[in-house]
Prior knowledge:
It is built from seven helices and 20 strands. By secondary structure, it is of the alpha+beta class. It has three domains: about 1-100, Roll (SH3 type barrels), CATH 2.30.30; about 120-185, SH3 Domains (SH3 type barrels); about 195-370, Aminopeptidase, CATH 3.40.630.40. The strands form five sheets. A six-stranded mixed β-sheet has the order 16-15-17-20-18-19, sandwiched between helices. Helix 2 (about 215-235) crosses helix 7 (about 350-370). The longest helix is centred in the N-terminal third of the chain and has 27 residues, at about 1-30. The chain starts with a helix and ends with a helix.
Amino acid sequence: MWQLIILMRRYLKHLLYTLFVIGLSVILFNPLMTFAEMAVIDADDLLVRSGPGTSFESIGHVNTGEEFNVEATESPWLQITYNNTTGWVHEDYVTLSAELLLDESDEEIESDIPPNYSFPHETRISLPIVHVRQDASLTSEIIIKLNKNDHVTIMNEQGDWYQVKIDNTTGYIKKQVLDLTLTKPVGQSPLLNKTIVIDPGHGGIDVGAISLHDEYESQFAMQTGRVLERYLVRQGANVTFTREDDYYYSLTSRATLSNYLQADMFLSLHYNSEPAYPSANGINTYYREAGFKVLAETVHASLLTETSANDRGVASGNYSVLRNNRRPSLLLELGFLSNQTEEQQIKQTSYHEKLAEAITNGLIDYFEMR
């Protein structure tokens, strides 16, 4: 009785997995794509037999981590190709996974390469698992297993395959496995054609913080914004300011502009002040929505690396320009005008160059991760 229950459980487990894989391939991928079951070995010195049972002779053994296509099943045994012949392993000692493959019986597969497409191009993996093979063939050895969001460089094409490079290793991936909408020419900035709104804090009658030598935060924020604009435009970004002059615009209108333009990024630039604590120093970065925390951390880390400033942390802030903003947005406090050392830094053009470069690099890092 118990043996029958165990057999039924094994059968149901395999049936459910098979149905899941078939259903997923139908829903998510085009008809040219199917999933091939893979048996990943979970034990060392696992015997491979000539038939589905212990009564069949052993023809060899396999070890932990080795992978084989599942050619057929006869529960609880799985048929694999072993040393160019048919072998069988017990399903209790393997993990079933799936590899996205192309139906090679269809010889009308067309290249997705757009006109005038040139190499090399960079792209990232959009599927859970993609195998890189040594040669342009499904029977070729798998040399690298890539995961979702891993980066590869497309070097060339060969029939239905792309030649790719990962670090210093060259291999091949089926064309339809790579999503060319994610590609960009090597060296092309991820900021190309991005709409970035720069908000120099305060302005006009609202001068913001006042430095030890009676200079205004609003003026320094605009200075940083202009330098940042230059760095962003070099990367191909489209830059818009919430204010172009020394005039006060309401905080709500600044966020509204960002929403109206559907900005890819909104950056509110500020400088801090704590006259009662003249030793206070460093950089703060604020975000509002939890989904922008990674953005804040990425830009903040870049600022600290470039400026060696004191790390005052990353936090969620209830600021109007963030609260009313529906676009990716940050508020940056870039130093203390009440600190003698930092005030002198902020007055130097070189410091604004460092800030602009750091913010730009942080944005590049962030968009490359997406």
